[in-house]
Design a protein that fits this description.
alpha/beta; Rossmann fold
Length: about 300
Amino acid sequence: MSAVKIFAGNGSRELATEIANSYGKPLGNSTSKKFSDGELSFSYNETVRGCDVFIIQSTGPSDNLIELLLMIDAAKRASAKSVTCVVPYYGYARQDRKDKPRVSIAAKLMANVLQAAGADRLMTCDLHADQIQGFFDIPVDHLVSASIFVPYIKDLKLDNLIFAAPDVGSTKRVREFAKFFEADMVVCDKHRKRANEIASMQVIGDVEGKNVILVDDIIDTAGTLTKAANLLKEKGAVSVRAFCTHPILSGNAYENVDSSELEELVVTDSIKIKEGVSSKIKVASMSELFAKAIRKIHDHESISSLFIQ
């Protein structure tokens, strides 16, 4: 069987190091440089010929995407047997359809460029929309953060548990959590004036005397989530916690979280966050989940055991 080699892009180096450690081997040696005008260059400092190469890089900022494309191209030109992109956070996923005239379907464009660069497989977690898997003509391993969050929630040992969707778009994700815990769910229905600005919100369902857990895939400015938390508390919730996979946390997100009614916000390390800024934010690592998935993919085994049943 061909050897596994794991490499990290600059956007996910800490997570990649933890994944490699969980897998049981060191990160591969590579060099990424930037010219004075911002142009990136990349090279592998060891052979990858005939190897199964796994490249770990979230694709949020544009530099991360360009670096990932260079890493794929370099591996293919160096005769790697296969190239799997391990993308903990798949950037541009929120632009997955034409919701108004004359806009790009950026999630599909990202799929096109990754495949054009030579990716043989994509491994990711909690895509903004499940149908993005269909944008690819290569295998996509779509992991879920539930396997990380569910044990955490169990350890809380909360009574009168109820799950909440911060908006209508996250109801499917929340329903799966509620079903697993045999709990009820409510929905916070919001109306937006424009992106990142909420005009109004209302709770569909009863949270009186309940310990509420909000679940979402992305937390950006934290406007929707914190408004939902505050509203749920007003409606009689005993406590409100939030579990979000991808902590973009842009703008005033940290301040919004700290000043909200949230008891805690639990996120993953798919995106590196600022450390020591907020005592409410807890980070659960994805390293073991991805390490197990890499091993199973390399051994041609099913990854279904990694999902909460």
